């Protein structure tokens, strides 16, 4: 079986890359503010783990909203980082490239708690995406293997080295961590929960 990972370069997907060791990683530049830092982080992780890396570039900035696009939050959003149907878009774009690479399974780095902020982080969302992709040609399946873990639990469970995790980029607003967005808050609180082993790594 050929596996791929949707690798954003954030803590969760970096930990899943270490854990699952897919043959292929797919990073999507869809016009988000932090695209360059995410691509840099993902590329370094792939170099260290020997994973074939593909970057998909599709400019969807005009459709964005909130922190990730640098525009006003969508009025229906519960959080400032919600970009309308972003996860659905990312899974679709990743599948389009993955199926042409002969991939059978696409892993996603979503963790427990992502669904508390938006519905496309819920297990039910990924079950539906898996069913939709499996219904179509190509024999591709979609799985979120870390969906039952928090980020800290995932990192401990997989044993991802601190040095590899240090490459991760979580900021939603730019290529340099702003320290104030939901992505940065999650990043720093995860390090606090993990303790000195990872802070000194």
From TrEMBL:
Reaction it catalyzes: 7-carboxy-7-carbaguanine + NH4(+) + 2 ATP = 7-cyano-7-carbaguanine + 2 AMP + 2 diphosphate + 2 H(+)
Enzyme Commission number(s): 6.3.4.20
Superkingdom in the source lineage: Bacteria
Alphabetic keyword roster: ATP-binding, Ligase, Metal-binding, Nucleotide-binding, Queuosine biosynthesis, Zinc
Pathway listed: Purine metabolism; 7-cyano-7-deazaguanine biosynthesis
GO molecular function: ATP binding; ligase activity; metal ion binding
InterPro entries found in the cross-reference section: QueC, Rossmann-like_a/b/a_fold
GO biological process, one term: tRNA queuosine(34) biosynthetic process
Entry-linked Gene3D superfamilies: HUPs (3.40.50.620)
Keyword check for Transferase: no
Family, as annotated: Belongs to the QueC family.
Protein name: 7-cyano-7-deazaguanine synthase
Species, as recorded: Ramlibacter lithotrophicus
């Amino acid at each position: 079986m050929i596996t791929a990972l949707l690798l954003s370069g954030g803590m969760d997907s970096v930990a899943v890359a270490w854990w699952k060791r897919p043959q292929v990683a797919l990073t999507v530049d869809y016009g988000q503010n932090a695209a360059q830092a995410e691509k840099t982080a993902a590329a370094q992780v792939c170099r260290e783990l020997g994973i074939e890396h593909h970057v998909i570039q599709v400019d969807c900035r005009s459709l964005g909203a909130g922190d990730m696009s640098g525009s006003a939050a969508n009025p229906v959003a519960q959080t400032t980082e919600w970009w309308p149907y972003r996860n659905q878009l990312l899974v679709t774009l990743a599948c389009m490239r993955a199926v042409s690479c002969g991939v059978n399974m696409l892993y996603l780095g979503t963790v427990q708690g992502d669904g508390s902020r938006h519905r496309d982080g819920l297990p039910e969302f990924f079950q539906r995406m898996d069913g939709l992709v499996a219904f179509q040609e190509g024999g591709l399946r979609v799985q979120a293997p870390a969906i039952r873990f928090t980020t800290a639990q995932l990192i401990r469970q997989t044993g991802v080295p601190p040095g590899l995790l240090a490459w991760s980029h979580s900021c939603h607003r730019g290529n340099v961590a702003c320290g104030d967005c939901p992505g940065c808050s999650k990043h720093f609180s995860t390090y606090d929960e993990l303790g000195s082993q990872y802070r000194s790594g």
